[in-house]
Amino acid sequence: MEDQSQGCRGKAGIWAGITGLVVAVFLMVVAHETIFVGVFMGLLTVLLFGGFLIWAFCSGRGAPGAADGTGDTPSLEDTTPVEVFNAQSPEGAAAHAQAVAAAPTPAPVPEVKAAEVEASKPAPAPEVPKAEEPKAEPSKAEPPKAKEPDVAPEATPLAAMSAQVETTAEAGQPAAAEGEGKKPRGLKQPRKAGADDLKKIEGIGPKLEEVLNGWGVWHYDQIAKWGPEEVAYADQNVPRFKGRCSRDKWVAQAKIIVDEGMDAFLERAKTNDY
């Protein structure tokens, strides 16, 4: 009995030490307390919790026969809190004893040998060899393929439209040549009748008119005579408006003014018919 009591006290001390260590670590890490406070509260927890465990589980309070020394003191590892509560009354102790006596003894589980397990497994079905499919022999002689007659592709509406656009471009606005192009040939000053109002051409504003005048271009007929080289030069050298000559068809507009007159040009300008 004394050995059991010493073992119970040792286990109670271990549990109390673990609890005190947890409390000290919690205070220092989580609560950010000082080491002195954590160690002090950990030791206080060990003393209080250890004393409680020894009093509750190792002193034999409430156990049957503890007053006269005839009862056995329950140990900490064999006694649960519910059993301690039931053991404090005579009715609970008697009910606990009857429940323990009435508990059936578990029947031993028969051992199954590995050989019996292997014998009980069904035998695997024999594999059936797959029949090889006969390979088809390639035919040696193949019939000659008939040559398709050479038929010229029919002209599509898209191709006809492209041809019409190219014809219109050649007749009106010439396409810009590749490269930097050639600067248009200019005049030192406008003719005696005075310079033309180049702003009548769509896409030419006051700033662009000044640029063209700086090149010596003052009249509509000068722009109407531009070719691919001059158009390429105008597209690349007009400041902040690159490609404006081709996009707004300056040459085509100038040709209409020269050939048909200003009134006809203004009428066609309403629908951009250049």
Automatic annotation (TrEMBL):
Biased composition (Low complexity): 91-104, 169-178
Chain spans, region Disordered: 91-195
Protein name: Uncharacterized protein
Biased segments, Basic and acidic residues type: 129-150
Organism, as annotated: Thioclava pacifica DSM 10166
TM regions (residue ranges): 12-29, 35-58
Keyword tags: Membrane, Transmembrane, Transmembrane helix
